[in-house]
Specification:
The structure is a single chain. This protein is an alpha+beta fold. The chain folds into two domains: 70 residues; 60 residues. Helix content is 66%, strand content 13%. It contains four helices and two strands. A two-stranded antiparallel sheet has the order 1-2. Helix 1 packs across helix 2. It is rod-shaped, with a radius of gyration of 34 Å. It starts with a helix and ends with a helix. The model has no long low-confidence stretch (mean pLDDT 88). InterPro entries: WH-like_DNA-bd_sf (IPR036388).
C-alpha cells in the first residue's frame, strides 16, 4: 500500500522503467503494491501523459480497465518526471553528506581545541620545572 509521496514516486518510476524495458506493466509484477494503488498510479501516468499507447477506462462498477492501443512507451514528460525525482534524491543525498561533513569538521575542531588546552594545562602545571631546567641549560651554555 502506498503511504507517502516517496513510495508513490518510486512506484511510478518502476512502472515507467518497466515500459522502457519493453514490457507491459501488470499488477502481478509489483508485489509491493496492491492492485488498487497500481491501477491508480498507472491511470495517473496515462492522464499525466507520462506514457502513451495505453488507455484507461472506468467500468460501471468503478474498476479500471486498460486498453493497449499500440506498444506503450514513456514520453519525454515521463522521462522528465524520472529525472526530476532522481535529481531531488541526489540533492537530498548531497545535503545529508554536507551535514555529515560539517559535523566531522566540528568534531575535528573540537579535538584540536581539546589537544591545545591539554598542552597548555600540561605546560602550566610543569612551569616551575620548565623554568628551572631552562635556567640550567642557559647556565651550561654560558660557561666557557
Amino acid at each position: 500500500m502506498i503511504s507517502n509521496k516517496a513510495e508513490y514516486e518510486n512506484m511510478t518510476i518502476k512502472i515507467l522503467n518497466t515500459i522502457i524495458s519493453g514490457e507491459i506493466p501488470l499488477p502481478e509484477m509489483f508485489p509491493e503494491c496492491n492492485k488498487i494503488d497500481f491501477d491508480q498510479i498507472l491511470e495517473q501516468c496515462i492522464n499525466e501523459d507520462f506514457i502513451t499507447g495505453l488507455e484507461s477506462d472506468r467500468m460501471s462498477d468503478g474498476k479500471l480497465h486498460y486498453n493497449r492501443i499500440f506498444q506503450p512507451y514513456v514520453t519525454f514528460k515521463g522521462l522528465s518526471f524520472i529525472d526530476s525525482v532522481k535529481q531531488t534524491e541526489a540533492l537530498e543525498i548531497s545535503k545529508a553528506a554536507e551535514q555529515k561533513s560539517i559535523k566531522a569538521a566540528l568534531k575535528a575542531n573540537k579535538s584540536y581545541i581539546i589537544s591545545v588546552v591539554a598542552i597548555l594545562v600540561s605546560v602550566l602545571a610543569n612551569l616551575d620545572k620548565i623554568a628551572h631546567n631552562v635556567q640550567k641549560v642557559l647556565s651550561y651554555l654560558n660557561t666557557p
